[in-house]
Amino acid sequence: MTFRQHMRQQAASALSEFPTGPESGLYTVTFRIDSVDQDPRFPYLALGYNTEAEVARLLAEPSSPEPWEARWSYAYFPPSGLEGVRVIGHDEQADPRGAELHGQEARAAGLWFEDDEPEHVRDERAERLDAQFHELCVDLARQLHTDGDLVRALGRPLPVILYDMFDPDAMFALTRAANPPELVADFLSADDVSADCAG
Description:
Order of helices and strands: HEEHHHEHHHEHH
Largest sheet: 4 strands, mixed
Oligomer: single chain
Number of domains: 1
């Protein structure tokens, strides 16, 4: 099994742990892209979700966020959307098999590095490892859509919001690339507004 296949299998399995049915109010799947100790050699993905009840709770607070922020900004996500229900990837505690597969493939591809290697070598390989994992996460979300996993597990197609708290600007591009346009139109409306302001 490849690391990609492992990620695919684990992601589909994680969806079965989400609350289901219309009463759950689940409206989005969340992909938090991260790494152990912010080390690009150890990337992982925390899969989670958010619910309408959580958005309603935020909007009912005296100093509530804007509606878009309450619904889509990871700054307001509850633990189910931040920590998620499962962590998969190169995390030896949460996913030992994923850690083993990723480490093997990174070494085979010549992307692994040791702490004592020259800085320019570490930086170049770190950048490539990071880019590869982001690409894998986008592909994974696409596959959950195209293979019908989201509909099978949750009863309907839902947007997958991809975010990396250490690269907030990447959120819109990653999410746009990972989803059918109609599912993320509301989420992307904030990006369209910021683009118009910049223009």
